[in-house]
Design a protein that fits this description.
Bound molecules: zinc ion
Distance between the termini: 49 Å
Number of helices: 10
Low-confidence stretches: none
Number of strands: 4
Mean pLDDT: 85
Helix content: 55-70%
Strand content: 5-15%
Strand order of the largest sheet: 1-2-4-3
Shape: globular
Length: about 220
């Protein structure tokens, strides 16, 4: 879609006037209202078929205890939970309700594995993936206007960090942290400390995430 010069200027002004995060939040909200649940179900099936062809992965069932913990945390059950072979780097991801946890993360320790599951399910619950489709669309639309692109990049970072902190806060209620949550948190963060989790445009840094998790647990 081509924008006229006047529309482009209007977009630029709007992007500059909006408080940080507002422009991309609006784009995400529009995408969520346009993208219907049946489309998400269809994408989820397609993703799973492709995944099975390309990667060595196996579906795992959720036992009653874990299902109960998810319910208590206010999180949905995944469409599918599967473990996939990795290169030793603990990782997790989701796609339209399919949650994949890498073998080295899943078999190591319940606490980080269940936290990762909860974190990914928070993304599923809030349809963050669909929201990003809208943000990408906004970025494409504004590509001819470099001044706006700088704004959008900053807004994307703000929104992304907000979303990741929210996923951490919701996900931390899934693992059984035991009597001393502080030790539980150490087990959890120990599994994630590494290059993968350094601060980036999409993720806050580990110290920030740790602080947010601690304050979340103190509010209980
Ligand atoms: Zn995340």
């Amino acid at each position: 879609m081509e924008l006229s010069e006047a529309t482009g200027q209007a977009f630029t002004m709007a992007a500059e006037l909006l408080p940080p995060g507002m422009g991309v939040c609006l784009a995400a909200a529009v995408a969520k209202s346009m993208f219907r649940p049946e489309h998400e179900a269809e994408y989820a099936e397609r993703f799973w078929k492709t995944m099975q062809k390309k990667v060595d992965c196996s579906e795992i069932s959720i036992d009653q205890k874990l299902a109960h913990r998810l319910e208590q945390a206010g999180l949905p059950t995944p469409r599918r939970l599967f473990v996939y072979e990795d290169d030793g780097e603990p990782q997790a991801f989701h796609s339209y309700g399919n949650v994949g946890i890498s073998r080295s993360l899943w078999s190591e320790d319940d606490v980080p594995a269940h936290f990762a599951l909860g974190h990914e399910l928070s993304h599923y619950k809030h349809r963050d993936e669909v929201g990003w489709l809208g943000v990408e669309q906004l970025r494409t639309l504004l590509e001819p206007y470099p001044a706006t692109t700088v704004q959008i990049t900053e807004q994307e970072r703000v929104l992304s960090h907000f979303i990741e902190h929210r996923a951490d806060r919701e996900g931390v209620h899934v693992p059984d942290l035991g009597f001393d949550p502080e030790i539980g948190l150490m087990r959890l963060m120990g599994a994630f400390l590494g290059g993968e989790w350094a601060a980036s445009r999409s993720h806050p840094d580990t110290v920030d995430r740790w602080d947010v998790l601690r304050s979340e647990l103190k509010q209980e």
